[in-house]
Specification:
This protein has 560 residues and is an all-alpha fold. The chain is 75% helix and 1% strand. The protein has helices spanning 7-38, 42-58, 60-71, 73-92, 99-130, 140-172, 180-190, 195-207, 215-250, 262-269, 279-303, 309-317, 332-350, 354-376, 391-413, 420-442, 465-492, 498-521, 528-548, 550-559, and strands spanning 321-323, 381-383. Strands 1-2 form a two-stranded antiparallel sheet. α5 packs across α18, α11 packs antiparallel against α17 and α16 (420-442) runs antiparallel to α19.
């Protein structure tokens, strides 16, 4: 999988891993932070969250233009890291709850989005440039799978980092995490709390070691402590960006040859350095890109519910503690050695020598033993927080990437590997199946609108496995769609518009991310099964549209 790849791939992948670790640490707690600190309702939180995600993925369109026409890739990427750093720093500074605090938060989000706009698409364009070399061109799809796996290694550790930092600083103030307290505090303040809610609030104060306390004062103290703990969580992103910058600059020599836009190549080598396309070829490629962009909008609208409605489902409808074997998936102490064991098992089948097979077997056994020892040491019951569920998508990416790479390699040897557009269409169908799982898990649960006055937590809580299962299926969909989509853009984009094309892919993602908010607006308006059913329908309709254009897309891809 890693053999024969240019060294620059690993430098760029590690730089991206650090940046994504910070981003997903922030994203894991951002909606919870907004609602706890400012008391935002579902619609306001959805608007801010969707707008931020849209900006994060739309601004690379301008970042691509800046790189293509002015600064080049490397300088634009470094500028993006600096801008992001100041955005996260501003978000990490504790502030009040008034208008100034909200404006400061929005300013920090804008800086993060602007920095990401300079960083993300151009880093992907650099990776693509490495594979313009005929020596490596056949490994392009595999390279983007490796690149994508590294993104998700960073994303995997992020929720645990956010949870660990938050729980640590809450505990310093004598509190433990509880999702109901902030909601009840805001309900008490605006006079919409019910008698049942007041009783629940008093019981929670006792559980937190504050019997007989004034509920308004107790609630505000809790919110202040929780908000500050989230600020420290955001500060983790600042540290991760420093690491990314060091990696990116220190090992520049390994990707320097790819750090040239088509404009720079023409300036150095003359017009012959640019691969010229006919107007018809350029048009065909741009149309193919546009069609794929139109479809992935709906995938990201569905997929990025993980930071919004799926986080609310984890907070309001999923059990707050796990026991038995369910504990296995909620600790790094078990997940990390199990990943080592899993890779050992894969290498056992792939090793070509007896020594390699023995080494792989030993690694697998050690990983399984360490997982079991950690599992056996757990307390009978383990508390979990809503943000921790976001680790599963990234974890499954890390586990399943070599499996999908091997699967596509097996198909390629038989001349049956589908081209990128067909993989994307299959991914849309699989995404629909993921939300069918969550639909089934939501049957019989009360609508969110019926829970508002009592703190928003359902009296009936479901197994965490409904969400974990949904993340597993969505991960398979993502592996069919996202790395293949990035590779498709890198391959099909007209040479003069590589940075712009990567920005276009991210701009389509931006539109999908803004539409995330539309589903959030429905949170208090429809039953849960209807909410997830809308996402199922969107995925299936967009898949049908893509397959209706498949011959045209595959023709353009084959000719690129």
């Amino acid at each position: 999988m890693f053999k024969g790849q240019p060294k620059g791939l690993f430098v760029l992948s590690l730089a991206n891993m650090g940046e994504r670790f910070g981003y997903y640490t922030m994203l894991a707690i951002f909606v919870l932070y907004m609602q706890a600190k400012f008391g935002f309702g579902a619609e306001t939180a959805s608007t801010i969250f969707g707008s931020f995600l849209a900006a994060v993925y739309f601004l690379p369109l301008f970042g691509g233009l800046l790189a293509d026409k002015v600064l080049g890739y490397g300088k634009t990427i470094a500028l993006g890291i600096v801008i992001m750093f100041f955005g996260y720093l501003l978000l990490a500074i504790p502030s009040g709850t008034g208008t100034t605090a909200i404006v400061t938060m929005c300013a920090s989000l804008l800086l993060i989005a602007m920095g990401t706009g300079c960083f993300k698409g151009n880093l992907q364009a650099l990776v693509g440039n490495l594979y313009d070399d005929p020596k490596y061109s056949a490994k392009r799809d595999l390279a983007f799978s490796i690149f994508y796996m590294c993104i998700n290694i960073g994303a995997f550790f992020a929720p645990s980092a956010a949870e660990g930092v938050s729980n640590y600083f809450l505990a310093k103030d004598g509190f433990t995490y509880n999702a109901e307290i902030p909601a009840l505090t805001h309900r008490l303040a605006d006079g919409t709390i019910s008698q049942e809610g007041l009783k629940t609030f008093a019981d929670l104060a006792v559980q937190q070691g504050h019997p007989g306390a004034d509920l308004a004062t107790f609630g505000q103290q809790y919110i202040d402590s929780l908000s500050t703990s989230y600020n420290y969580g955001f500060g983790v992103a600042c540290l991760s960006l420093i690491v990314s910058m060091i990696i990116f600059l220190a090992f520049r020599r390994l990707y320097k040859s790819a750090d040239k836009t088509e404009k720079q190549k023409a300036s150095e080598q003359g017009q012959a350095a640019i691969t010229e396309l006919t107007p018809q070829q350029t048009n065909d490629r741009l149309v193919a890109l546009g069609l794929v962009f139109a479809v992935v909008i709906f995938f990201w609208m569905a997929f990025h519910q993980n930071g919004l409605t799926m986080t609310w489902f984890a907070r309001d409808y999923t059990v707050k503690s796990v026991s038995g074997f369910d504990r296995f998936g909620f600790s790094l102490l078990t997940l990390l050695p199990f990943a080592v064991a899993f890779y050992g098992i894969l290498n056992l089948f792939q090793a070509s020598t007896s020594r390699g097979k023995w080494s792989a077997a030993i690694v697998a056994v050690i990983g399984l033993i360490l997982s079991y020892v950690a599992y056996a040491s757990f307390e009978p019951e383990m508390s979990i927080t809503p943000q921790i569920f976001q680790q599963f998508n990234a974890y499954f990416i890390v586990l399943l990437t070599p499996v999908t790479v091997a699967f596509f390699g097996w198909l390629a040897k038989r001349g049956k590997e589908p081209l990128a557009p067909r993989k994307i269409g299959i991914g849309m169908i699989v995404a629909a199946l993921g939300f069918i799982v969550l639909t089934l898990g939501s049957l019989g649960l009360p609508a969110p609108s019926t829970l508002a006055s009592t703190g928003g937590v359902s009296p009936t809580l479901v197994s965490p496995n409904w969400l974990v299962g949904t993340y597993f299926v969505l991960t398979i969909a993502e592996l069919f769609l996202s790395p293949m989509g990035i590779s498709f853009v890198s391959k099909v984009a007209p040479p003069k518009y590589k940075g712009l094309a990567q920005g276009g892919w991210l701009a389509a993602t931006a539109i999908g991310n803004y539409l995330v908010a539309v589903i959030g607006y429905l949170w208090l308006k429809v039953d849960l099964w209807i909410l997830w059913g809308i996402l199922v329908a969107c995925c299936l309709v967009s898949a049908a549209f893509l397959f209706s254009m498949m011959k045209r897309l595959e023709k353009t891809t084959s000719e690129a």
